[in-house]
Amino acid sequence: MSKHLTKKRAILVAVAGAAVAAGTGAFAYFTASGSGTGTATVGSASAIALSSAAVSSLYPGGADVPVTVTISNPGAASQYVGTVSGSIADNGGCQGAWFEVDPAAYDGTIAAGGTDTADTVVRMLESGTNQDACQGKSMTITWSSN
After folding, report:
1. What domain range is 117 assigned to?
2. Residues 80, 131: Cα–Cα separation, whole Å
3. Residues 112 and 48 sit within 8 Å (Cβ to Cβ)
4. Which residues, at least 6 apart from 137, have a Cβ–Cβ distance to it below 8 Å?
5. DSSP letters of 70-106?
6. Judging by beta carbons within 10 Å of its beta carbon (0-12, 13-18, 19+), is residue 102 exposed, middle or buried?
7. Using one digit for the tens of pLDDT, what is the confidence trace for 4-46?
8. Most exposed: 5, 77, 80, 88, by fewest CB within 10 Å?
């Protein structure tokens, strides 16, 4: 092989190597800042469901009758329940004011889809008047929570 061809090959290899190095090692770019908007939706509370079994053996001036209130959270997130209260509606001549329901301090969180209970008592007060209108009546306890 001639000295001339070897020198020519060496130059070609050097040029090719330089071209590859230059082509892969350097690049150019632009920078830019940006902005935009998106949305987020906050869920809402579901009503806590409160219920109890029937309360019996209520008499004017009688003893407190225990009642267990079931607290259910049908919502998709945990919800806090403070106090569970009950009130009794009138039924004909039987006055709801003749009954008293003690509030139950629950002060806890019910998990999504969860259920728990709170205990309280119900009593029929002595009104000092004839309460015969209540004999045999079914009274409705309306439960509420905060």
Report:
1. 49-128+139-145
2. 39
3. no
4. 91, 92, 94
5. EEE--SSS-EEEEEEEEEE--BTTB-GGGEEE--EEE
6. middle
7. 555 555 555 555 555 555 555 677 888 889 999 999 988 888 8
8. 5
